[in-house]
Amino acid sequence: xxxxxxxxxxxxxxxxxLIINPKHYEIIPPGNYPDGVEYIRIAEYAIGHLxxxxxxxxGQILKYSLRIGKKDSMMQDADKxxxxxxxxxxxxxxxxxx
Length: 98
Known about the structure:
Layout: H1 13-20, E1 26-28, E2 37-38, H2 39-47, H3 52-67, H4 74-97
Antiparallel strand pairs: 1-2
Helix pairs in contact: 3-4
């Protein structure tokens, strides 16, 4: 599904759900794990101990790692993972200098 930049309120509930909960965030589909597992549930567990920019960056790394090749090209997702990981490394390096 392409990005949506229209009249969201005019959409059906089904179409709104497709925008808010796209298939590429469904990491484990229903039937394979009781009701399925979406990225957000994994992130809540995996990065709940982090705060601020570090939580955001690790969340992005996790998101793109889990959906690699499901929405965009694998290389695009891999480059996003690399970018966020490099930025996290820069942030942590700076933090450790102080």
